[in-house]
What we know:
The chain contains no helices and 4 strands. With 62 residues, it is mainly β. It has a 4-stranded antiparallel β-sheet, with no helix packed on it. β2 (20-35) and β3 form a beta hairpin. The two termini are 19 Å apart.
Amino acid sequence: MIKLYSGAGLGVVFDVMDRTAAVLPDITLLGLRSGGKHLYFFVELTAGSVATLAYGGLGWKF
């Protein structure tokens, strides 16, 4: 089973050397998720100030 999704979020990036933090937005234009009850694989097409264009990985749902 494959699920399609999109979303928006915020992330915090810490700079330890300068002792600063920045809040940065992220938008998931299109995401695909497939897997079992807990372990799943995802691929996302993203747009944001520090995001890559596309990435994927494994996730675990508690």
